[in-house]
Amino acid sequence: MEEIPAAIKALMQDGDHIVLGLDANEDVCSSAVQKELANIEMFEAIICHHPTKSVPGTCNTNESRKPIDGIWISPGVEILRCGCLPFDSYDGFSSDHRMVWVEIDNVSILGHYPHYYPHYSSMPSADKVRSNDPRLRDRYNQRVLEAFEDEDIQLQVETLSLLMVRFHAGEDVSALVEELHGDLKEKTIRIQEKVGSKLRIFHTGPIPWSPRLQVFRDAIEYRDRYIRIQLGVLASRQAIKHLAKKIGEYAGIYSSLSVCINRLKLAHKAYKEAKKDATKWRTGFQETFVTAKAKERGLSEEVVINK
To answer: Disulfide: which of 49, 57, 81, 85 matches 99 by Cβ 3.0-4.6 Å?
Structure first.
């Protein structure tokens, strides 16, 4: 343990600020580690920031409420917020330890707030990419990767890597690097925005929603749109093509008005019957979500449900 304080002290003497995260395997309030670090004026951030609070145990096998994980800071580092997350928190990670965290004021360690780069505002919106739904996230990633393959993104990345090798070797290829980098940026943002805009967010209303029930609703909308077209009312043909593909029916364009009306009535009747099973289908749909979430987190389904 002597080497770490010595190395930290040397860095501090050079004017560096230090933030040290450590699993000490012993009580960070009174351990030898704490004493060694205190000797070089390094103090545990969470304990010092919450002096009137009782710090919880950070390992779930510890029943004596002794924290063994901590974050130590050097003098001059300003803490804005800090604390410990619950075990297996969705905001943390799957572990037998709590996540200990600290939020630090940039001015105290950098002397300024980092410059804001306007081009970040051009990054794609992720409004529809819900990171807490593994199914939606996996669908997004799969579609983005497929689009990358269609537009040879990987080939361009490899080309850019080769250009950078030549650049570092002293060749004047900066113009080519800038051009290719700009093209890659434009393509990736366009692809991500396009995929994100077409993702379907799962909702539920007065009638419990599920993908299985949605098929009946799509059938009603498909027939209703074709009736509107035959009556001379504007309707999106692109939306009709999309619905036709979803329900696997393409005969609407060849049907008369009376046939379309009869089929719409049958679609409403089928939907009315389907609503009787809506709650059961919704439950099955939610179970798939719980199963996917539990598998991703490495937890039991019961733990996910209780969360």
So the answer is: 85
Residue 135 lies in a domain: yes
| CATH code, domain with 47 | 3.60.10.10
Phi, psi of 80 (to 5 degrees): -90, -50
> Given 198, 230, 247, which residue is the final one in a domain?
198
User: Per-residue confidence of the chain (307 residues) as pLDDT tens digits?
Assistant: 678 888 988 888 888 889 999 888 888 888 888 888 888 888 898 888 888 888 788 888 877 788 888 899 998 888 888 988 887 766 666 778 888 889 988 877 877 555 544 444 444 454 556 666 677 778 888 889 999 999 999 999 999 999 989 988 888 988 898 899 889 989 998 998 888 887 765 554 567 878 888 999 999 998 888 888 888 787 787 888 888 888 888 776 677 888 888 888 999 999 999 999 988 888 888 888 888 888 888 888 777 665 5
Nearest-5° Cα angle at 297, 293 to 299 = 90
Distance CA 128, CA 151 (A): 23
Phi-psi region of 129 (alpha: psi -120 to 50; beta: other; left: phi over 0): beta
| Residues 22 and 98 placed together within one structural domain of the fold | yes
Cα–Cα dist 54/103, whole Å: 20
Gyration radius (Cα) of the chain, Å: 29
Angle in degrees, 0-180, between the axes of helices 237-247 and 211-230, rounded to the nearest 10:
140
Report pTM: 0.39
Residue 171 structural domain: 118-198
CA atoms of 270 and 265, how far apart (whole Å):
9
